[in-house]
Amino acid sequence: GFFIGTAVAGGGHHEDQPYPDPFSSDQPYRNVLAKEFNSVSAENQMKWDFLRPEPGVYRFGPADDIVAFAKRNNQVVRGHTLLWHSQNPAWLTEGGYTKAQLKQILRDHIRTVVGRYKGKIQQWDVANEIFDDQGVLRSQDNIWIRELGPGIVADAFRWARQADPKAKLYFNDYNVEGINAKSNAYYALIQDLLAQGVPVDGFSTQGHLSLRYGFPGDLTDNLRRFARLGLETAITEVDVRMDLAPGATPTPEQLAKQAEYYQRMLDGCLSVSSCNSFTIWGFVDKYSWVPVFFPSEGAATIMWDDFSRKPAYHALRDSL
Ligand code: XIL
């Protein structure tokens, strides 16, 4: 009943990923993926910019491949994501659509995508990162909320439920491991939505950590308060980055600290009964998003480039 997952890298194209698609070209990568995990998440392949290259067009190939791989290997799939401010195609954000058209486009997208994978997705991140770190709704940079108002978030959950009644429907965000302004905003919003009968099933925290900022406090208290609302919880995108000069190797101290952070995240999840899955955001440094997005940090995953195991891998194993 507990799932250990990873994001699946590549699977198509991405200008942000300066390497060939490992999912289709790296057999050792696929072997580890099949063997070490019982849950997989599409790192990019179910996002709008992947699925929707042109208006009215759905390009399902890369996402289908991941779902088929998971099935062959007895893995569940986390769907990521339906409503987000980022990675939306230009035809959508610059298309000059009316509000009525945008609502229609989102409804069509959710029905089509969630419907296609009906029965094959364990959890959907229906809404991703809708609050900023102050707990303010992203009503400018999120096109859906800006154009259609906050009620569109409830609509998204309702449309997803209709398209796949068994998939668990989640809010997902970063910097919500602990109790803070942002997680408080989710707590208040979800309470409100549940009172209105909106089908929200889960709250998940991504878990992108950095040794620079320390380990977040209150993880278990935070997860437990969402559980008391009747929700499932999950940790969905764990990685632990560290300061690293280009070409440098982490010190033993950094690796030990990293192992400790991974283990504390997993232990936190395991100690809260509502927390049903722990997913890392890639398992090998050479395919990690971290050095691309955080230029002076790296080495954030649990394996070296040859798939040998870091202390963090062993720390996770020890907790299971
Ligand atoms: C990242 C991917 O890992 C990158 O390959 C991509 O270029 C940008 O997005 N929070 C999320 C994920 O919810 O979708 C992000 O994934 C990482 C932060």
Automatic annotation (TrEMBL):
PROSITE patterns: GH10_2. It comes from the Bacteria. It catalyses: Endohydrolysis of (1->4)-beta-D-xylosidic linkages in xylans. Transmembrane segments: none annotated. Residues 24-319 form the GH10 domain. Keywords: Carbohydrate metabolism, Glycosidase, Hydrolase, Polysaccharide degradation, Signal, Xylan degradation. It holds the Pfam family Glyco_hydro_10. This is Beta-xylanase. Belongs to the glycosyl hydrolase 10 (cellulase F) family. It is an enzyme of class 3 (hydrolase). Its EC number is 3.2.1.8.
